[in-house]
Write a structure and sequence with these properties.
By secondary structure, the protein is an alpha/beta fold. Helix content is about 35%, strand content about 20%. It has 11 helices and 13 strands. The chain has a 6-stranded mixed β-sheet with strand order 10-5-1-2-3-11, with helices on both faces. Strands 4-13-12 form a 3-stranded mixed β-sheet, with no helix packed on it. It has a two-stranded antiparallel ribbon with strand order 6-9. A hairpin with a 4-residue loop joins β2 and β3. α2 runs parallel beside α8, α2 packs across α10 and α6 packs across α7. The longest helix is centred in the last third of the chain and has 27 residues.
């Protein structure tokens, strides 16, 4: 395990975004991928698949109920220009799941719900933050297990990416357009050079700029991590709508769609079976209705722990139970846990 993270170090910590699976699911919702495209997902050069997904692919049954995917963003510095190898610096040796977005998928409605799992949460009876689960064996299943304990739902799938993976994904889909709440300057992990993104509405961002916005935290005087997570969900939603636009514009065999699928598959580690994706596509394509996306956060109020000098968020079982009861039922969770407002530009 790495050295404990102080409050000061926490402000400097860089955050990766795990938005890739959202784009995957939404593309499935709006267009049917022909069998040849789905089959190619398991054999395309450069695709990073889990052991489960790399195994022999057999027919799968479409879940009869909505299901969950955990989107994980690793903060590892390894392989980046920010890596120093110093064991006393955050994420120099171990990686942490500093982004955890629980995605509920209802393919029959269709409806998606994005739920932030605050990285500083400490489960009752545990002495470690929930984001440290990834550090032991670099195993996303360990992160899934911790989030299952916290939320009380079964999480069948995961998708994980990294600093560089997220940058390449965003560049591969042609960038993203979002509102940027404050001007941000953060080093790009690929070359350690500062990248500046100015505040404004409808700002078009490339991969490094999108990562800068996702990592921004010290620019907010209060509710730093909660506001950062709100930025992350905004980026995730931007990826969703970018995927929908490309799919509707070019169809499943079009160049735009193929380019986006390539970007996704080359920059995500996942256990989602391609045949399950194909079956999801078939059923959803036969349905009707307008996509609904809900976005919310879990309890995020915290403070400095006197014993460790770490910023922590104590597990709030009652608040999580109230939130997840609505989420699991497919309801609108907006406002159950208050999301702070961004400061005026």
């Amino acid at each position: 395990m790495g050295a404990p993270e102080t409050v000061a170090a926490r402000k400097r910590a860089a955050i990766a975004v795990a938005a890739v699976a959202v784009f995957m699911v939404l593309c499935l919702v709006v267009v049917e991928i022909v069998g040849a495209v789905a089959a190619s997902m398991g054999i395309r050069e450069g695709v990073k698949m889990s052991d489960e997904q790399g195994a022999a692919i057999t027919d799968v049954e479409l879940p009869s109920d909505p299901f969950y995917v955990l989107l994980i963003g690793s903060d590892s510095r390894k392989g980046t220009a920010l890596y120093t190898g110093k064991s006393n610096e955050h994420a120099q040796v171990d990686q942490h799941s500093d982004i955890m977005t629980l995605l509920r998928v209802d393919p029959y409605t269709p409806q998606l719900t994005l739920v932030t799992v605050p990285r500083d949460t400490v489960l009752e009876g545990s002495g470690a933050k929930i984001n440290e689960a990834l550090a032991a064996d670099n195993d996303p299943h360990a992160v899934v297990a911790q989030v299952e304990k916290l939320t009380g739902v079964e999480i069948e799938y995961y998708a994980m990416t990294t600093f560089i993976g997220f940058e390449r994904l965003v560049d591969g889909i042609g960038g993203l357009t979002i509102d940027v709440p404050v001007t941000v300057t953060v080093p790009d992990p690929s070359n350690a050079e500062d990248v500046r993104v100015t505040a404004g509405e409808d700002k078009h961002l490339d991969g490094s700029e999108a990562l800068v916005v996702a990592r921004a935290r010290k620019e907010y005087k209060e509710d730093e991590d909660a506001l950062r997570q709100a930025n992350v969900r905004n980026l995730e939603e931007a990826i969703i709508w970018k995927g929908i636009s490309a799919c509707l514009d070019s169809g499943s065999s079009g160049t735009s769609f193929s380019r986006m699928m390539d970007a996704l598959l080359e920059n995500v580690t996942t256990n989602i079976n391609p045949n399950l994706i194909r079956e999801l596509v078939r059923v959803v394509a036969e349905g009707s209705g307008q996509l609904v996306i809900y976005s919310c956060t879990g309890p995020h109020e915290g403070g400095v722990d006197d014993g460790s000098d770490l910023w922590t968020v104590k597990e709030d079982k009652q608040a999580w139970a109230e939130l997840m009861e609505v989420v699991d039922a497919g309801g609108d969770p907006t406002g159950i846990v208050e999301v702070p407002e961004f400061p005026e530009r």
